[in-house]
Amino acid sequence: MEEQIRRLFKKYVEGVATDKEREVVEDFFAMMQEGGVSADSVQNNPLLKRRLDEKIYQQTVHKQSRLRRRVMLAAAASLLLLLSCTLVMYLGRPADMMNVVAKQGKRLKVVLPDSSVAYLNAGSSLSYSSDMGDDGVRTIQLAGEGYFEVKHDESRPFIVESGTLKTRVLGTRFVVSDYPGEMPSVVVRSGKVGVQGPGGVALTILEKDERVFFNNGLATVDTVDAQDFYSWKDGKIVFDHANLKQVINILNRRFAVHIELTAEYYDNCTITGSYYDNRIEDVLKSLDFIYGIKYSLGKNGTIYLKTNPC
Description:
The protein has 310 residues and is of the alpha+beta class. It is 30% helix and 32% strand. The protein has 3 domains: 2-91, no CATH class; 97-228, Jelly Rolls (Sandwich), CATH 2.60.120; 235-306, Phage tail protein beta-alpha-beta fold (3-Layer(bab) Sandwich). The protein is built from 9 helices and 18 strands.
């Protein structure tokens, strides 16, 4: 492209440019004399919106004097970089990748380029293109857990790619949880959601208050109260028959702490209940009172849990 621009200015200075090629250069000089070429002026000028090789055509200019040609040549050199940058605006440039991270103990709300909204749970991240959806598909990458309120657009599917699952919607509200080493799941609050498993294998189509979870290579669909799975965005912790390992993982992320189990792990001991996450001490006291799960604080800040058989 830069070589094409150089050839155009060279032809203009040497007086061998076509009528239509001359007009392109003359228009640029005229705008420079009026105060420069700004992004706004380019945006509103249809001549500059077309690619150079599509618009190098228009009016005749009398042959220039040798002196003026030298002046024009110098001006052309100065304008070369400007013109190159201008053309890039219309020829297209690679979109920027946006990366958002919710650190341990934090939650984030993200407004996406298509006006959809994503809420990231603690220890999660989201990646997406700044021109999301320009190619007809709105694709984002999720690590961890996110709740999505997707703007409806039948012409542009919205796809969430996570570690294990691929979730496809047109416009709905749903939760994707796919933390490394944990059981991935999708829960629908409203609308319909298509879910694919590893290798793009179709798993199911979910509707309101349905969940699919993927465990040991098998997908299971059940009916749930979707609110229990997205209430974390409003500051609540909900355990739904969660085993102690799941409880520890959730508390570690939510409060940015380190919890260790100091007794034998009992897989059949599950915990159900909802808690507000203002202070971890309050949650631990509730677990102690209801389930007899004892806790202690180590000198290094580690929290130790001890539980008895169910």
